[in-house]
Amino acid sequence: MGSITLKNVQKHFGEAKVIPSVDLEIKDGEFVVFVGPSGSGKSTLLRLIAGLEDLTGGTITIDGKDVTDAAPAARGLAMVFQSYALYPHMTVRKNIAFPLKMAKMEQAAIDKKVEAAANVLNLTDYLERRPSQLSGGQRQRVAIGRAIVREPSAFLFDEPLSNLDAALRGTMRLEISDLHNQLKTTMIYVTHDQIEAMTMADKIVVLNRGNIEQVGSPMELYLTPRNLFVAGFIGSPRMNLLTGDYAKAKGATTAGIRPEHLTLSKESGTWKGRVTVAEHLGADTFLHLDVEGIGQMTARASGEFGAHHGDTVYLTPDETRLHRFDDKGLAIKA
Amino acid sequence: MATQNTRTLARLMMAPSVVVLLIWMAVPLAMTLYYSFQNYNLLTPQNVSFAGFFNYQYFYTDPAFFQSIWNTLLLVLGVLAITVIGGTAIALLIDQPIFGQGIVRILVISPFFVMPPVAALIWKNMIMHPGYGVFADIAKFFGVQPIDWFAQYPLFSVIIIVAWQWLPFATLILLTALQSLDSEQREAAEMDGANFFNRFIYLTIPHLSRAVTVVILIQTIFLLGIYAEILVTTNGGPGYASTNLTFLIYRTARLGYDVGGGAAGGIIAVVLANIVAIFLMRAVGKNLDK
Fold it and tell me: Per the CB < 8 Å rule, is A98 touching B206?
């Protein structure tokens, strides 16, 4: 079990209201990702749930029990830290066993659980090593192992992959998703990387300056962003946000069109642009364009599109995929 | 790592200081060795002659010899115990955020700036004096017979004074070590259900082991040569109760005007220091390699 409810949660550091007020419902077994730029309060929110920070106001309940003032250990949560926070002087075995030892479990039972966790995480050959003798990915797995042996009601991940190289990050992303499918335990995952958010989450919580901008499944956020912030934050490359005459003609202050919803042509189209930078990835081509009467835009073509710096290219937007926002930045319902 | 060129240059640049240090160390050692084999008394400076091992025998048969070695070790161990345990406790305390932290830290460090004879005199005359010392006042307030510290517990009194002087050093080193403890590790331990006591045992103490080693090694070097505090307080007495090896050498060489005997004592002190060093490096030196 691991349903978590946040009611009117507030956190102030002196004058700074890092989290003005947050309400959030996390269901048992959900994989929830907190995503937002630096300083959006996503890590603070996670630490509030973990009990590593005191709340300024509001309540947190886990499985219907009020844990607002409970000590971190009493909440039945396990956390994986950005720096892994392994105990450097202990072997991998002792690291993983530490929470069980603190819970005064019998040594035989501890050994069994540690072996089982090591088996799941492919750490069996490394149990007698120290953290300093492990690679980044292995350390990460030890940190996860230390979390799973406790059989917590929810896992908290604080940007766990940000210290890994790109290839390893991809692998660990899969492993964590896999782990969630096996354990079916609630997971809360903090990241600033929207690819991690889109690929892993059941539910994404987009945070900006301590406020929740939108909560929804990855596809909901992609297809119907509630406001300009979410529209600009979700999707890579970023959505093109157009102001001026074109937006006005569509009855909006700002019109948004994703790079993948622009059709590229060398002969004709709605807009005419000059290529400033062309990124050829093989599977995709990203063109950064200077468009007449509009300014900078980004377009994505599937496969190779033979355009280079200085070439003239025509763009046609798919107007069924157009996002419209009013003067407050909120989406206009079609 | 470096090219042949930079290695040669580095050696060349280091050569002067290495040579100076070598002379600085080798010449006094050689002179001490030389004098330790000479009959050389300042009362009869004209009668200098080869003495063989007589000086060593003379120093070894001094009735204070074994007690002085024992006292030297007790002094070192006592001060180490007080400074390491006390230093850890104070470092833990001043690591907490409090009002006026900067001033508190300066005050805690300040005993280190007081020169040893001054500190010893203050302790002797203002704190431990049986008539008008602070301890005596406290004893009298409770209606207890004041303790005559330097008469009743001479070595222990010296240990207290020296420990007071070295406590800031230990505190400072241990405080910086405490501050380098990764906060995420502490939080992880907190989430793992470790209370303050367990965090201290399983996280803080292992983390401090290297700093404690540094404190022990550096302090031992200086503590083996404690002299000024003994000179101005107990003068080695009563009897030989607070005479350590350094003080015995002083007595032989300066009060007895016996340069040869003092030199022999000096060589014995060097041997003792090396035995202690070997023992220490075996016991705690491995902490430095981690």
Answer: no
